[in-house]
Amino acid sequence: MSEKHLQTGDVLPPYSGKLRLFAMRFCPYAERSVLVLNAKNLQYDLVFINLDHKPEWIFNFSPKGTVPALEYEPGKAIFDSNIINFYLDEKYPDVALQSSDPLRRAQDKMFIETFAGAQSAYYTAAFNPQALQPSSVETYHKGLENLQKELEIRGTTFLHGDEPGWVDYTLWPFLERFEALPLIGKVEFAIDKTKYERLVTYMDAMKNVPAVKSYYLSAETHAKFIESHGKGDANYNMLDTSAVCCMRPRKKKE
Question: What biological-process terms (Gene Ontology) are attached (predicted)?
């Protein structure tokens, strides 16, 4: 599949009959749904969207033009990564990604909420550095400390258990991007291996999970995208190396 991001004027590719996820290759929220689809071994198509120059038809699947959006039947879609992932986990239960214990499910959701501060700090550091405050760095490291503590309390390889689950796939896309921050000069956001030994072990384990490994991008690649975004011309297609792809639609005729 081409890594090309479709934009204004591009034609919607024909529906193949599979689940279809509209995403952006560098979006952590879209990656959440990609990882869940991968973990459940589902067949699906990916269509990447240029979020600066959105194709007109994306609004038929996502009212605000945001990603991810999941087309589950021709012309019918749901949006928001958590809504999509809860739907997928209930619709395709063979590979369950949530605990059977209602309390643990609630605890996982609460932990995701408490980690939101670290995610916001990342976005500020990466895409709005002028607004960066010392409190942002503190919030970021507090999130990392809480995650490390939670891993130690649970005593398992992953937060979900011996295998990763919804909570891990929800957190991972941000952890993957956190490693890019020192490469763009935000050294105060570095994940020190001495201080965060348990967390680094967890991250190394996640990188080797098949669902993650097939979609993983290096810190260097994320840093290049962040830098291109900062110059006012986000390079959405930096990974597209295919000259011809069956998924690439023709331009509308003038």
Answer: glutathione metabolic process
Indicate which residue of 27, 46, 184, 209 is catalytic: 27
3-state helix, strand, coil in the chain (%, to 5): 50, 10, 40
Q: Where in the chain is the domain with CATH 3.40.30.10?
A: 5-95
* Tokens coding 175: 């952890």
Cβ-based neighbours of 56, under 8 Å, separated by 6 or more: 8
- 79: CB partners within 8 A, 6+ apart: 61, 62, 63, 64, 66, 67, 68, 69, 70
pLDDT (tens digit per residue) in 58-78: 999 999 999 999 999 999 999
Q: Is 246 in the active site?
A: no
**CATH number assigned to the domain covering 5-95:** 3.40.30.10
**Full-model pTM:** 0.93
